[in-house]
Amino acid sequence: MWKLEGLPNTTFLALIAGAALAAAAPRSSSYNASGSQPDYVIIGGGPAGFVLAEELSQNPRTTVVLLEAGPDTAGEEDIDIPGYSPNLLYTQYMWNYTSQPDPNLEGNAPTLEQGRGFGGGSAVNYLGACRGAPSVFDEWADISGDDGLRWENFLNDYKSTVHYQEVPLDYDPHINPSAYGDGPLELTAPLENLGIVLELINSFISVLKLPWVDLNDGTGLGVATSTNVIRASNRTRDFAPQAFGWQLAGRPNAQQLSNAEVTKIGFKGTRAVSVTYVNPIDNSTNTLYPKEIIVSAGALNSPKLLMLSGVGPGDHLRSLNIPVVADIPQLGKNLRDHHCAFMSFEVTSQVETLWQYTQNATFAALAEEEYINNSSGPLSVPNGAAFAIYRAPDSVFEAVDDTFHTSLPADRGQLLFQYSTSTFQATTPNVSIVSPFVGLVQPQDSGYMLLASADYRDAPLVYSNYYGSAGDKAAILHGYKRIRELFSDPSITPLLMGTVALGTVVEGKTWRIKGLDGIRVVDSSTFPYPPTCHPMATVYAYAQHAAQLIREQDR
């Protein structure tokens, strides 16, 4: 393990980042190969882009250029340190997109953040690795005619990209070693500083009636501690530019270019012949003429770029005066996202949360010291280190006459339950909060996206259509109710509190603040645990009850 006592945090992180990328050639935003043109240009420096670039450049006679619109991510402590991943929202490492107002959400416009920078989503996510139900991949194989996508075959591709590194643990993470191979990406289980994780797992098991399993081995339903993309040696994030980029760095036939935002793919007739990109820092423009172009820019940026280049719904492109290269009406449609509904609970001080890092300097200093000296402690554990994949009972969908969800293969769950040790709301009390959430992972209805204009700098128009069918609405409503049950389970309730909690801050039966006289608190802030429905009626009754007891005490 790393043991760099006395070093400031920034120095430590520069060292651990540099260790993985020590051999890397300087990354720039302009191609330089003595006038020759590459065989491949890959657009998008996320997991797909890096794996493609590494594989293709293994042939020394094949030249590859990987273009990433965002910055280099090496040495960024919020990326490298697992516990800091929530800090990455609304930064330069995100495409901070916003959905159009969604009628299914009463006109609200959810955010749609995407990874921006080397690593893409692998640089900014909560580090969990999960594969899910085999039937999904079997269906992909049927649709595509590619038998290699069938689970029994596709599992080999999973194994070729990752390996699992065992570490000493004081609990059983229920890992199935046969699910992992010897690929460059390292997976580990969370260490001993799990905070609320084990309590949540017990709650998931009790309330959802699910087993504790490894959701990477072909098991579709169950509870899991995340297998995380974290190096066991120093508990830092392992992600695309480090697992695959270091191999590219030593190859003269491969280049990785950050700050290279592609504005257009050029066509000659129906053949793609050029890639034009801009450095957003100095606005310099470059054009490459590769033999082949591979677009790996993600669910939103790939269709956006193709539309800007004349590929997509013809009527839409013509309305923006974009010459149509190929009229493909379905491009930009079938957008499916795992939108989440969440709750927020105040928790006791024994649960380590992001709020404690930002509000308690002593706690933050101790956490950083433990991480720097021992590669352990709360910063070594990612947010959301426990989750569950759950299939709702068929009865949930009977009232809305939905057959989509009930007809899904038996290994597929419709709902994912997880949590964050931070708040998802813009305005919350200044207290320590945990936010459990549920996501619809098999939505029936899909959304779509269009261009806002012909200017590459404009964000796309995303019509998310979350919970667009009656069955989707029934599923997420059921999931939301289950969150209430999960956080009313005896495994969890001792860790929850109101903001002025009864029995903790105020005395039972008197509602006096402990240690003070002449003051009481009677409102929802004193609820020790939340009610299982809307609180207004409970507040009425609660105040009525308190008034009777207070009146008797004052006689």
Task: Tell me the domain tally.
Answer: 3
CATH architecture of the largest domain: 3-Layer(bba) Sandwich
Number of contiguous helices: 15
CATH superfamily grouping of the largest domain: FAD/NAD(P)-binding domain
Are there runs of 5+ residues with pLDDT below 50, and where? 1-26, 499-506, 521-547
Count the E strands. 24
Helicity level? 25-40%
CATH class of the largest domain: Alpha Beta
- Percentage of residues in DSSP E strands: 15-25%
> CATH fold name of the largest domain, please?
FAD/NAD(P)-binding domain
Task: Decide which structural class fits the backbone.
Answer: alpha+beta
User: What's the N-to-C terminus distance?
Assistant: 67 Å
Shape: globular
What is the residue-averaged pLDDT?
82
CA-based gyration radius? 26 Å
Q: How is the biggest beta sheet arranged?
A: 7 strands, antiparallel
Describe it.
The protein contains 15 helices and 24 strands. It is an alpha+beta fold. The strands form eight sheets. Strands 8, 17, 18, 19, 20, 21 and 24 form a seven-stranded antiparallel sheet that branches. Strands 10-2-1-14 form a four-stranded parallel sheet. It folds into three domains: 1-127 and 229-296, FAD/NAD(P)-binding domain (3-Layer(bba) Sandwich), CATH 3.50.50.60; 192-226 and 336-486, Glucose Oxidase, domain 3; 498-553, no CATH class. The model is unreliable at 1-26, 499-506 and 521-547 (pLDDT under 50). The chain has helices spanning 9-21, 47-56, 77-80, 121-124, 134-144, 151-161, 197-208, 240-243, 245-249, 298-308, 314-319, 354-359, 361-374, 470-486, 536-553; strands at 40-43, 64-67, 94-98, 111-115, 128-129, 162-164, 185-187, 222-225, 227-228, 254-257, 261-268, 271-278, 285-288, 292-295, 311-312, 326-327, 340-342, 345-347, 386-390, 415-420, 433-440, 448-450, 461-463, 496-497. Its cofactor is FAD. One of its GO terms (molecular function) is flavin adenine dinucleotide binding. This is Glucose-methanol-choline oxidoreductase N-terminal domain-containing protein. Pfam families: GMC_oxred_C, GMC_oxred_N.
